[in-house]
From TrEMBL, chain A:
N-terminal signal peptide: none
GO cellular component: recycling endosome
Gene3D superfamilies associated with the record: 3.40.50.11500
Highest taxon of source: Eukaryota
UniProt family annotation: Belongs to the DENND6 family.
Record-given protein name: Protein DENND6A isoform X1
UDENN domain segment(s): 47-513
GO molecular function, a single term: guanyl-nucleotide exchange factor activity
Pfam families per UniProt: Avl9
TrEMBL record, chain B:
GO cellular component: centriole; cilium; Golgi apparatus; phagocytic vesicle membrane
Stretches of the chain forming a coiled coil according to its record: none
InterPro entries recorded: P-loop_NTPase (IPR027417), Rab (IPR050227), Small_GTP-bd (IPR005225), Small_GTPase (IPR001806)
Species annotation: Microcaecilia unicolor
Subunit structure: Interacts with RILP. The GTP-bound form interacts with REP15.
Gene Ontology molecular-function annotations: G protein activity; GTP binding; metal ion binding
Main location: other
Keyword flag NADP: no
Protein name listed in UniProt: Ras-related protein Rab-34
Cofactor or coenzyme needed: Mg(2+)
Biological processes per GO annotation: cell projection organization; protein transport
Gene behind this protein: RAB34
Amino acid sequence: MALWGIPRLEERNERLQDQGPSRSLAEALCVGNSLLLPWDRFSAWLHCICVVGFDLELGQAVEVLYPPHSKLTDKEKTNICYLSFPDSNAGCLGDTQFCFRFRQSSGRKVSLHCLMDQFDKDLPVYLKKDPAYYYGYVYFRQVRDKTLKRGYFQKSLVMISKLPYIKFFQTVLKKIAPEYFEKSDPCLEAACSDIDRWPAPCPGTMLNLPIMGVVIKVRIPTCHDKPGTTTQLIETTPQTDAHISISLPTIHEVDLFRCFSPVFLHIQMLWELVLLGEPLVVMAPTPSESSETVLALVSCISPLKYCSDFRPYFTIHDTEFKEYTTRTQAPPPVILGVTNPFFAKTLQHWPHIIRIGDIKLAGEVPKQVKVKKLKNLKTLDSKPGVYSSYKPFLNRDEEIIKQLHKGVQQKRPSEAQNAILRRHFLELTQSFIIPLERYVASLMPLQKSISPWKSPPQLKSFSQDEFMKTLEKTGPQLTSRLKGDWIGLYRQFLKSSNFDGWFRTRWKEMTQKLEALHLEALCDEDLLVWIQKHTEVEAVDLVLKLKNKLMWAIAEHLPVKPDTVARLQMHIDSIISALPEDLQGILLKTDTA
Amino acid sequence: MSVLPPVRRDRIVGELPQCFKKEASLHSRTSFHPKVVSACQEQRTGTVGRFKISKIIVVGDLSVGKTCLINRFCKNTFDKNYKATIGVDFEMERFEVLGVPFSLQLWDTAGQERFKCIASTYYRGAQAIIITFDLSNVVSLEHTRQWLQDALKENDPSSVLLFLVGAKKDLSSPSQYVLIEKDALKVAKEMKAEYWAISSLTGENVKEFFFRVASLTFESSVLAELEKRSARNIGEVVRINSNDSNLYMTTKKRKSKCCK
């Protein structure tokens, strides 16, 4: 371990600066630069790996932490400890995998992750990192062991990461954890050393990731992929030798059909509840079922990003337990996955509750149709189903239900069922969002209103009435066969945090586009002619303004034409060289400041 | 779609590279098996034609030069400072053999004792094992038998290709070398391994060796694939006369037989 000392971050930062501001750590990671310190590559994927065990006196405790220098606050450690173990007595005998999400303690020092946000800009919005949260991926083993005082071996191997790549980390854990439980520390050390050799998590490239003797092949989607095509992008090699390589068709997608099969008839309603950001709780027998179902819910509105908080697995010990369960306020607009029976009582005032029994592998579809009344949920073992008084805005799509039913009868493979359901949700979400996209695009000022000598024009503001008017002719009826109160659905959606998040992203993109167009217009001007007609003070002012714009364009990755930045720099240089020499000196100096 | 960059020009194999010592070689044919040549020409190499990968593991005592050997070939570098491998190092090297893309996964395992317990995890599924020793250290040659035995526990001895490699040739004087080579050839014959002597410092024989490894693993995987295919054809003939469940049983039986 001595070889892997604490990274000397400061020293490295100095070296990065020496190489000029254009060299970022992300680039260094991509090209395998000598600037990389041990653990840099590891940190691009994971914050740390912990082993959580059960101590007879202390309860759950973090037994091992890799890399040894990784920082977790006490609060974070406590959360990880509770979230890494099942919190109910349901039979989690054997090996279980699940995932949780927890809030990062505030006031933490800027970590390496922030230096790598460059990867984030090419990611689809629903895969972007959330700076405030970590994911925990758990492999829990509980087996009888008479040699132990408690009679049971209970341990979790947990990977903590900012990346929401659930399928991928589950696969990695499945390779590492069973080996670790048998062979202990050297195994974890070797696995970490494998990970520290991985290429950076660059979206859009095929990544070969060696771990424990196999190579996992995976591709992280980009925001430029056509939605719904991600799974077809990876070439599925017919090679079946899992000792050599594993090709993952998806890095993050859970099996929607399997997760929704217990509440299959209500998928339309669930989609609306998630879209509108309604408070939703999933009560499941085990953490793996609760976490998969919550993640399935969150992803059913993809490519829209679910913007509120969601907890695939939430326990009564969670730091946010009080905040989320208080009865003095209305339930928060979050999705919680729980297993502890205690929640049936604590959360019985919540408006929408999904209760699932064991998820059957074969994807059996239950027969009951009716949504249950909430008052029925007083007892601990209420039957599986959806408990809510919510009336969906849209009618149920009988065709998709028929199609999937048929699939169950014909024993269609689960992957095919999943693909059908995913496509259904995708089409539904797109039908819903296209009118909004179209309207928001119309808020952009006309190209001709952009003048290089004025500041960029303002975007028109969003008007609900104007938008509603567009629905009459160019509403979702153009692309969806579903009937119902679409207007009502939009009205409700515009109040939700999902709309807020979506609109902010669009607004930012459009503002940047405006800035970019403005910058290009400036570049097309003959600025030397302009300064001849103006005073020296105005020329200096122009230089300073241009420099600011240039810096901003680089820092924000403005969507400008490829040569714009270089042309702008040339403009600046030529204006400066046309000025008196003493001024030139001063203006050139401000370059480095 | 992720399109791989073209294979480096100096990783293209058109003819079978020759062995190092005739008396300790995997086979003495001077060219690729005619079946393999014609399969490649006809492009009916099956999975071999599409991104076929073989897994190679490198084993041997602590500091005999396993990592240096790989680094000389994959990166053309040589680092005089010793840095112990933690767990395992990994390199992927892409070739083109007889016009067909072919990749080698090179798993460079740690020689340290404390990593021995996890080694089996990394050994699984190897198509070739490179057992390395230090030409200036007789003890490391003696240990190769044990390394082989451990590595074979996880693999099928009848199908895996073995290479016995003496490293650090530059460190032994000609007279010393003659002595150890005699022993090494004996060990190689006993193991049915192909013997090579290399120097990662000077680069002597390194490229030749890896080209030989790539070519022989490629040849044996194409042959295995062709054999599987003809077996499958027989299976299809059987199906005409028997029902599906019977077929399942017979193929399963056949599989377990050949794995033993």
